[in-house]
Amino acid sequence: GKESQKLRHKLLANNHHFIIMYKSQQCLTRIQVKWWFILNYTEAVAYIEGIGRFDIADPLGHAKELMKRLGNPQDDLRVIHVAGTNGKGSVCAYLASMLEAGGYSCGLFTSPHLVVMNERFRINGEMMDDDTFVRLFGRVKKVIDAFAAEGKEHPSYFEILFAVGMLYFKERKVDFAVLETGLGGRLDATNTVKSPLACIITSISKDHTEYLGDTIEKIAAEKAGIIKPGAPVVYDGTSPEAAKVIERQADRLRSPCYRLDPSLYRLVRQEPEGITFVFGGEEELFIPYIASYQMMNASLAYYTMKLLKPAHHIGEDLLKEGIAKTRWEGRMETVLPGVILDGAHNEDGVRHFIETAVHFKKNFRITILFSAVADKRYRQMIRDISDKIRPDAVVATQIDGYRVVPAADLAKEFRENGCTCVTEEEDIGKAFEAARAYQGDGMLFCVGSLYLVGEIKKYLKENET
Questions:
Q1: Which residue, among 9, 4, 40, has the nearest Cα to 20 in the 3D structure?
Q2: For residues 409 and 421, what is the distance between their CA atoms, to the nearest angstrom?
């Protein structure tokens, strides 16, 4: 029953052994039983999600020990490693799509997931199946148990998922693996990769300052920690402060360094179907996204693939075809005609979203479906959206959980910032339908949180016809 399931999950979280007590006619006997039964998918996910936040003394050293005990599967992969504040997931998606267009099998490891945990591990667009996830997690769990027996620190949420992903890619013998860092880079579990084919560093801005530092220079130093001796580095050079840090680290490790800045590309057309732009003065590329910042992300990926041509031998036409077919969920993603999902939730991401919405406001009615969690600067986000976009309609909803901000509170913020057509609806499905009604023949942007994006995608999947 339900109480039994709760006990199982509690035992999983506390690890190792449990005590069964039963009453016979003569006595009460205590029997120690080893935790043998095999987890199902739901239980495996519950275990991982139940892991608390650990302050591991030596995060990278800890991750290296975990991977060593699993046979260092990451060492057998040809890796392109991507770090940055914003855009790294998109860059990974472009890379994977180009490699797939060239006929290769490509493992893609990204975070976070929007609906199910398996989304983090994909090969040629297909996410890992549940049975494989459970089986590979079982291998990682044996190492976790050994760590516990030796008094070692418990692996983190991200370490475990990274380990599962690398086991998967090695088992499937992928031709290439594209890896997105989790938080930072220098101490990230993905940084156990010793010899990547190339390192890419996307735009850098202030986010997670409590972990990465309170200046662009400090954050850039953490991201530049993925650079390896001799491996080429391609990076977004828009920020001079970040550029100096990255170039210094590349020079120290004698790694070829390639700085890209906005002068290298030129917008041709920005339409609801996507963007056409010229890269390097002559090569015209199409990307199926409407945000102008995606020109930089696509350029980083495209230029890296040109550098790595000796490793993949993919022609220009196939690279361009791969770029054009890229699909990356939740980042300025068009899911229905005129309906865009964007998980922008930090200062830089919201700024880029606003620039895109303002561009389309010239020709389309703009509706906003908004929600946010309490530990983000949602009041400033609402002020900026209200002041700069001046949306025609707003629907505020809420993401349940311990960080919930009630829909009514969000709606009140929009009204206080000058928006007149504002509706509040706690249920995300009903809120989405209300926003669609307001949209009409205009455009609907669903923004404020990746959690909101995940819930909408789940709703769409459950209600697809």
A1: 4
A2: 15
Q: What three-state secondary structure class fits 18? A: strand
Strands (E), 1-111: 17-23, 28-34, 79-83, 106-109
Ranges of the chain with pLDDT below 70: 1-38, 53-54, 206-214, 345-346, 465
The answer to whether 234 and 202 have CB atoms below 8 angstroms apart is no
436 three-class SS? helix
Between CA 52 and CA 160 the distance in angstroms is 13
User: Is there a contact between 102 and 312 (Cβ–Cβ < 8 Å)?
Assistant: yes
Q: Is the backbone of residue 81 left (phi > 0), alpha (psi -120 to 50) or beta?
A: beta
114, two tokens: 């929007």
Do residues 395 and 368 lie in contact, with contact meaning Cβ atoms separated by under 8 Å?
yes
DSSP 365-405: -EEEEE--BTTS-HHHHHHHIIIII--SEEEE----STTB-
Instruction: Name the region of 390 (left: φ>0; alpha: ψ -120 to 50; beta: rest).
Output: left
> Which residue from 120, 113, 114 is spatially nearest to 137, judged by alpha carbons?
120
Q: Do the strands 257-260 and 233-236 form a parallel or antiparallel pair, or are they unpaired?
A: parallel
Q: Which pLDDT score, from 0 to 100, does residue 96 have?
A: 98
The pLDDT assigned to 92 comes to 97
Q: Omega into 112 within 30° of 0, i.e. cis?
A: yes
Distance CA 173, CA 20 (A): 43
pLDDT digits (tens, 9 = 90+) for 15-42: 433 333 333 333 333 333 333 345 799 9
Determine the residue type at 99: L
The encoded tokens of residue 49 equal 């999600």
3-class DSSP assignment, residue 199 = strand
Q: Which residues on neighbouring strands pair with residue 106, listed in sequence order?
A: 176
Helix (H) or strand (E) holding 152: none
pLDDT number for residue 53: 63
Whole-angstrom distance, CA of residue 292 vs CA of residue 98: 20
What local confidence, expressed as pLDDT, does residue 348 receive?
A: 72
> Three-state DSSP class for 285?
strand
d(CA 81, CA 182): 11
Distance CA 92, CA 102 (A): 16
* DSSP 8-state class, residue 454: H
Please tell me the pTM assigned to this model.
0.82
Euclidean distance between CA atoms 62 and 251, whole angstroms: 28
Q: What is the pLDDT of residue 464?
A: 79
Identify the DSSP state of 360.
Answer: H
Per-residue CA distances from 21 to 9, 18, 29, 31, 303 (Å): 19, 10, 6, 7, 64
| CA dist., res. 223 & res. 235, Å (int) | 11
